[in-house]
Amino acid sequence: MRNEGLPGCTSPDHVSISKEEKKMKTTMQRAAVVSLVIAGLTALNQSKTFQLHANPQACSASILLGGYGTATTGLINNSSNPNDFTIATFVPFAEAVRFVFDGRGKLSGSSNADFGGSNFPVSFTGTYSVKPDCTGSLTADIGGSLIHRDLVSVDGGKEVDFVSNEPGLVIAGSMKKQRPEED
Q1: CA 168 to centroid of chain Cα atoms
Q2: Average pLDDT in the 67-74 region?
Q3: What are phi and psi of 112, to 5 degrees?
Q4: How far is CA 11 from CA 1, 49, 149, in A?
Q5: Which of 79, 78, 108 is nearest to 93 (CA)?
Q6: Do residues 146 and 165 touch, judged by C-beta distance below 8 A?
Q7: pLDDT of 1-18, one tens digit each?
Q8: Cα–Cα separations (whole angstroms), residue 134 to 12, 123, 129, 159, 162
Q9: pTM (2 decimals)?
Q10: What is each CA distance from 57 to 5, 52, 67, 70, 105, in whole angstroms?
Q11: Which tens digits make up the pLDDT trace of 43-63?
């Protein structure tokens, strides 16, 4: 068939393509692209790196294992009246802490705390839990007094951010795994 209807085509060698042939060509091109995409995804799915990132395991207590160091800072209400939340009643607090997590929900540690300019050593034991979304909590017993922290594990347990969840305390920090290669 001669192509006499297309502008600029005067050669008798040009042949017009029917709508069905164009549709078939487009369909074949799309099928080729889809096949390449499927082949690429199949190859990626076999990759361990892709599997680790595409299907992360849920968090649990086992994500926290070994020693973690932290610098904790904040303010503690020093008033004998627990309802007195004026700025003048808050005293600065800072400490360097070493936590040791057993990977099963128990913890221990020690710190050097500074409360309003007075330094004192602290040792503690306690418990912790981690939910599948990598948030959790810890409770530490410091010689009969309990402290409570809400936490979130980040970077596969290499870091843990935390904040006090007790009235009268404004304390926060970030723990870092001391020896990540021990995992």
Answers
A1: 28
A2: 91
A3: -115, 110
A4: 12, 56, 83
A5: 78
A6: no
A7: 444 445 555 555 555 667
A8: 72, 26, 10, 11, 12
A9: 0.64
A10: 63, 8, 22, 26, 18
A11: 555 554 444 343 356 899 999
Q: Where are the alpha helices (DSSP H) in 19-157?
A: 19-46, 48-54
Asked if residue 163 lies in contact with residue 152, where contact means CB atoms within 8 angstroms, the answer is no
Provide the residue count of the chain. Answer: 183
Question: Which range among 28-42, 71-85, 131-145 has the greatest average pLDDT?
Answer: 131-145
Residue 81: pLDDT above 70? yes
How many other CB atoms are there within 10 angstroms of residue 54's CB atom? Answer: 10
User: How far is C-alpha 76 from the chain's CA centre?
Assistant: 28
**Pick from 94, 108, 99: nearest CA to 159:** 99
Report the pLDDT value the prediction gives residue 38, as an integer from 0 to 100. 60
Question: DSSP labels for 39-59?
Answer: HHHHHHHH-HHHHHHHSPPPP
Mean pLDDT of 155-183: 85
Asked if 40 and 81 count as a contact pair (C-beta separation under 8 A), the reply is no
Measured CA to CA, the distance from residue 12 to residue 177 in angstroms comes to: 78
Q: For strand 106-115 and strand 145-154, is the pairing parallel, antiparallel, or unpaired?
A: unpaired
Q: Give me 88's structure tokens.
A: 């003048």
Asked whether the beta carbons of 44 and 50 are under 8 A apart, the reply is: yes
pLDDT score for 169: 80
